[in-house]
Amino acid sequence: MKPVLDAVVKLxxxxxxxxxxxxxxxxxxxxxxxxxxxxxYYTKVRWLSAGCVFERVWQMKDDIVSFFHEKQCSAECEMxxxxxxxxxFAFFTDLLCHMNNLNVKMQGENQFIDDIWAHLKAFxxxxxxxxxxLAKNDLSxxxxxxSIPSVNEEKLKNYEDVLKKLHFEFERRFQxxxxxxxxxxxxxxxxxxxxxxxRSDLQLELIELQSNNHLKQSFLNIPK
Length: 224
Prior knowledge:
It comes from Araneus ventricosus (Orbweaver spider). The chain has 224 residues and is mostly helical. It has helices at residues 2-16, 19-31, 49-70, 83-106, 113-135, 143-146, 153-173, 175-179, 181-188, 200-211, 213-220.
């Protein structure tokens, strides 16, 4: 992903870091009645920055190409006219958007650890789904990549490998959550936990809890 990120950041900096070019670009967008008024800067310290930058450049790629062609500086945006590079850009833009959705969910207020873990588990399942679908040339959840004509099988295999590696990283980084899954289940769904699977000092109390229908009904009525 780094080569694609570097190219996108360089492109954005070419537009925004040069005062006259930046003004001309914004004027050009206004004259074209573009939906957007500018590209976004990439900031390493902001969680969602890369995904937002990629998505904005993807949405504005035709305007960017037209602008540099009009300035007779087509070399600045030649990668946006390279189908092979565009397929990589499209894939990582799609993937970063999925990751941004995860980040937004995890930053929500009033979340407990089991809520965070639920989001992470769901994302790991999604990564498995994505990898399996790419292996079958199914781009249902990669709309930008799907817009690229004739993505070859070798590239799809590379993207599948990226997803598998990302899944492995999620498994590795969050293995501590998996190790305490039973303990988390006691608090999130205590009436479904197998008493024999929990620590011995909790077993008797858990049996008492699960046998109390009034407590069970009260638990089920708690607003989620």
